[in-house]
Specification:
Helix 2 crosses helix 3 and helix 8 crosses helix 10. A 7-stranded mixed sheet has the order 6-5-4-7-8-11-10, with helices on both faces. The chain has a 4-stranded antiparallel sheet with strand order 1-2-3-9, with no helix packed on it. The protein has 306 residues and is an alpha/beta fold. Helices cover 39% and strands 22% of the residues. Bound molecules: zinc ion (ZN). The site of zinc ion has 6 residues, from loops.
């Protein structure tokens, strides 16, 4: 039975949103006072709009591709014998591209609702991508590994996704996911300033407790849980603390998207440099704890009712 989240408590109020924690499944949902929902396709169209040009600038683009390569190698080492993968919300497709090119994957399939990113994956990387929501696609085959990185926090009903993923996975197949960790050290410290609150994009928030509960409900056995990500952790911590100190809204993160010069950026970059190393150290110390910035979970599909 899918949870209807009827009983909840409000855990945070900011920018016209209430974050409501369901008292049954413990998942937190952002509710808008006006009750209007995001146009997700439009949001991702904006995010990927500069696809044809170099989205990040040369150095940043190099860094992003390195992170995608690291992700591909992580996936390979989680399931070395896997030959088929479904990556839900596959970005521009670089993870799938590297898995196919360097790690022996025979079948690499992705989903991507942004038309620009979808076209990039198909034309530049020649990948098999569906430009529809996972819940609207019927696949002919199952997969030996399914991954969903930083997507579940964007969807209204994560439970339906987990249910669908269970159906699409081979018996004993591997399912890997990553989301921001709502009880991370900077989330607790900086509250509404936490980078990953990001109410323009995020509508669902997880804790180690609520996410493992959801996975168990659908017969996934948790093999490994980490709360550190080289790609996300340090940046999230630093940006959240700067948000708190300067009472601004993720200025560097937004600046990276357009790189328009504004004198304000000098202060922000100065703070960024000072905070970078201390935040990296704190995040490394928290590697095995429940308080790092992300939840990265590797699970195995188990038989139902055992
Ligand atoms: Zn619920």
């Amino acid at each position: 039975m899918i949870c209807t989240h009827e009983n909840y408590e409000t855990v945070l109020e900011t920018k016209g949103y209430k974050l409501q924690k369901c008292l049954s499944c413990y998942i937190i949902f952002a509710k808008n006072d006006k009750n209007d929902t995001l146009d997700r396709v439009q949001v991702y169209e904006n995010y990927y709009k500069k696809e044809k040009a170099n989205r990040f600038g040369f150095l940043l683009e190099l860094l992003v591709r390195m992170f995608r390569f690291l992700r591909a190698s992580k996936i390979f080492f989680s399931a070395p014998r896997s030959k088929s993968i479904l990556d839900i919300g596959s970005g521009r497709g670089y993870t799938l591209y590297y898995l196919k090119k360097y790690f022996g994957f025979k079948k690499t399939v992705g989903t991507q609702i942004s038309e620009n990113a979808y076209q990039y994956s198909k034309q530049e990387l020649v990948l098999e991508i569906y430009n529809r929501d996972l819940l609207d696609i019927s696949f002919q085959n199952s997969f030996s590994i399914i991954t969903i990185w930083h997507v579940l926090e964007h969807v209204e009903s994560p439970e339906r996704y987990i249910e669908r993923i269970y159906q699409l996975l081979d018996q004993d197949g591997i399912f890997e996911l990553e989301v921001p960790n709502y009880i991370s050290w900077t989330s607790r410290w900086t509250g509404r300033h936490w980078l990953a609150i990001d109410l323009d994009h995020h509508i669902t928030f997880f804790t180690p407790e609520s996410l493992t509960l959801l996975l168990k409900k659908y017969n996934f056995q948790v093999i490994k849980m980490r709360t550190f990500s080289l790609e996300y952790s340090t940046f999230t911590s630093v940006q959240s603390i700067i948000n708190l100190l300067t009472n601004t809204d993720s200025y560097i993160f937004k600046w990276l998207g357009n790189m328009d010069f504004n004198p304000k950026i000098i202060l922000h970059i100065f703070l960024f440099i000072i905070l970078l190393l201390p935040c990296l150290i704190v995040n490394l110390i928290l590697y095995f704890s429940n308080s790092g910035e992300v939840l990265t979970i590797t699970t195995k599909k188990c038989k139902k009712y055992d």
